[in-house]
């Protein structure tokens, strides 16, 4: 999350409107350096207008040597050529007018995108382990949670694959209630555990569903969201990769820090949309934002939920509006709502239902297997079958031609 130094209360409050919710504001360079010592993953430092130019340049020089992957943004009331020249030599990546919120927000987005690129260029290549599938929509109420649960169950293939679902809608997550689970632990209990997080630690936070699906529930109180950092989410996903074949993430309908971290780590991103103009408008804006951030490029799949021709917008129009093809359509069905209300998702209660088949076809695509060879999810297998990874797998440096299930 960005950290801001050198801004009075009025300027800081003004800038907070475009900064991520968990951004920090410090009053001195000493406090800034102390924070950075304990948060080496920091991707942006904003030096505010109340820091004089010589002090700002000295600080930027120091950060260039000690934290070269951290973007330094200099905020000035007046930007002139002399300041720009000094900033360039000191290693400042951007100089922005402090009162131009559009420029400030753009600088933060570019800083985050650079951090993502640097991270994926070093640690991401050749990364082994389970595949992370992120379910995202910029608008609530589109059936994202229902699709997350049913997709996770489809990925299990009757017990062949070890799958977990993580509820990252930290303020209003519904994964647990959808499955009629009453967890004793949630992701909130992982706070502070980044340094010693391992399989046993995470296992104790999970709740097991009767199907064998493992669930990491969202906090019971919305205020816990602010205390779940991006660093915690990153470490959690690293650990889950080591012990699960597939990790399904149900995210919040917003580009918050936790969702951005999930998108950074994702192997496949499922964009959920419904056939109404407001949702499609929001999805288009979200896709443009993902393009700017360089997130999940070539690894996005569009799922149309409640897809009925009667509403006047067909799949062809959606593809024209959004500029991407529809991966799967799930028609409106009262059976889905009834199954959800009964706590028995459609994938379990009616595996032959057209909606179940549609979701299973998406799961097959993500697993890189032929739909014709998919076994019924209600019939566990005794031996895993080899399956080629999906063509959009980003781990091209070390392709996994066969998947061995963790059981």
UniProtKB/TrEMBL annotation:
PANTHER family: SEPTUM SITE-DETERMINING PROTEIN MIND HOMOLOG, CHLOROPLASTIC-RELATED, SLR0110 PROTEIN. SUPFAM superfamilies: P-loop containing nucleoside triphosphate hydrolases. InterPro entries: AAA_dom (IPR025669), P-loop_NTPase (IPR027417), ParA/MinD_ATPase (IPR050625). Gene3D superfamilies: P-loop containing nucleotide triphosphate hydrolases. Residues 348-407 are annotated as: Disordered. This is AAA family ATPase. Residues 370-391 have a biased composition (Low complexity). Residues 131-290 form the AAA domain. It comes from Nocardioides malaquae.
């Amino acid at each position: 999350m960005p950290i801001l130094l050198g801004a009075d209360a009025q300027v800081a409050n003004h800038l907070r409107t475009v900064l991520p919710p968990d951004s920090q504001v410090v009053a001195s360079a000493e406090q800034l350096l102390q924070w950075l010592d304990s948060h080496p993953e920091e991707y942006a430092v904003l030096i505010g207008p109340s820091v004089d130019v010589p002090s700002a340049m000295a600080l930027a020089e120091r950060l260039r040597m000690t934290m070269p992957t951290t973007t330094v943004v200099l905020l000035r009331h007046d930007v002139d050529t002399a300041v720009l020249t000094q900033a360039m030599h000191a290693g400042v990546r951007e100089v922005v007018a402090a009162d131009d919120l559009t420029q400030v927000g753009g600088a933060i987005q570019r800083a985050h995108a650079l951090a993502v690129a640097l991270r994926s260029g070093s640690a991401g290549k050749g990364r082994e382990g389970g595949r992370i599938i992120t379910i995202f929509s910029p608008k609530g109420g589109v059936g994202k949670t229902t699709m997350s649960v049913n997709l996770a169950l489809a990925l299990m293939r009757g017990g062949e694959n070890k799958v977990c679902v993580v509820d990252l809608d930290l303020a209003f997550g519904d994964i647990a209630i959808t499955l009629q689970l009453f967890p004793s632990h949630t992701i909130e209990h992982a706070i502070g555990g980044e340094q010693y997080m391992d399989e046993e630690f995470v296992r104790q936070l999970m709740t097991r569903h009767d199907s064998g699906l493992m669930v990491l529930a969202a906090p019971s109180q919305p205020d816990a969201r602010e205390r779940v950092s991006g660093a915690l989410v990153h470490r959690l996903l690293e650990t889950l990769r080591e012990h699960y074949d597939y990790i399904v993430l149900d995210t919040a309908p917003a580009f918050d820090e936790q969702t951005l971290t999930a998108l950074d780590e994702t192997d496949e991103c499922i964009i959920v949309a419904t056939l109404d103009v407001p949702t499609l408008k929001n999805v288009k804006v979200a896709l443009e934002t993902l393009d700017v951030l360089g997130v999940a490029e070539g690894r996005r799949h569009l799922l149309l939920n409640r897809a009925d021709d009667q509403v006047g917008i067909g799949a062809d129009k959606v593809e024209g509006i959004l500029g991407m093809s529809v991966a799967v359509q799930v028609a409106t069905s009262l059976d889905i709502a009834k199954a959800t209300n009964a706590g028995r998702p459609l994938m379990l209660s009616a595996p032959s239902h057209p909606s179940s088949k549609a979701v299973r076809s998406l799961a097959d695509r993500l697993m890189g297997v032929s739909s014709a060879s998919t076994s019924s999810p209600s019939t566990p297998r005794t031996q895993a079958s080899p399956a080629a990874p999906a063509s959009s797998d980003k781990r091209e440096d070390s392709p996994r031609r066969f998947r061995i299930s963790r059981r």
